[in-house]
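stage 2 :: seqdesign
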């Protein structure tokens, strides 16, 4: 973000919908093992924490602040089925020293899904994903704190040739519109407007900024 961090007030229903969307998209279940690679104070942890609680999946708390080789070996011992992290951490995980064989840098054969978010996903990331995780699914998501996860994109081999991945399509219960400077819907470029019951309650103790960013659309829906 380029702005000053603000406390966002979320409702319990928003968090539940967020976790359910994540769990259903990945088909989480009791047989899954999910390492928690985000701090619990970071909003990216919400989907893993509550997604596992809702489905009976096993959550493993892991400290990602270590060298790539040590992190990979710790993850391999957990036999994870889902990896959720930022693209930067994903690249770190797949990095290695020149003395380490490329095919041994990601000994994670149990992974069936990788979820990336929080920053741009490059075509080169997709290429490395398919090289290290054949048969797995790659999901790119966009979820501003004001509305948890709003868009998801399921990557394919064709995405290798893109400079960066699209953020995808709206998840169920979310409508996305692009608005020009006058607030009129436009087709190509504009400010993203999210229309959904999952929009946050506003910014904590920032009434003026809440009034400027939140409201209702012409049909009375939260945006």
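stage 2 :: out
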């Amino acid at each position: 973000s380029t702005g000053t961090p603000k406390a966002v007030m979320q409702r319990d229903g928003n968090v539940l919908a967020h976790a359910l969307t994540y769990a259903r998209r990945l088909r989480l279940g009791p047989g899954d093992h999910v390492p928690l690679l985000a701090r619990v104070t970071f909003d990216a942890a919400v989907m893993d924490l509550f997604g596992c609680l809702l489905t009976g999946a096993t959550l493993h708390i892991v400290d990602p602040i270590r060298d790539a080789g040590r992190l990979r070996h710790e993850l391999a011992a957990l036999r994870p089925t889902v990896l959720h992290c930022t693209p930067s951490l994903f690249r770190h995980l797949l990095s290695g020293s020149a003395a380490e064989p490329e095919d041994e840098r990601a000994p994670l054969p149990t992974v069936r899904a990788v979820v990336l978010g929080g920053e741009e996903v490059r075509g080169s990331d997709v290429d490395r994903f398919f090289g290290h995780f054949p048969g797995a699914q790659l999901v790119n998501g966009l979820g501003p704190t004001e509305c948890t996860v709003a868009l998801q994109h399921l990557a394919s081999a064709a995405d290798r040739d893109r400079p960066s991945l699209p953020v995808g399509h709206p998840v169920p219960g979310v409508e996305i519109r692009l608005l020009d400077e006058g607030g009129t819907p436009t087709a190509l470029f504009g400010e993203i407007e999210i229309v959904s019951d999952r929009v946050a309650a506003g910014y904590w103790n920032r009434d003026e900024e809440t009034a400027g960013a939140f409201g209702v659309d012409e049909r009375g829906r939260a945006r």
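stage 3 :: structure notes
- The chain has a mean pLDDT of 83.
- Residues 87 and 116 are 6 Å apart (CA to CA).
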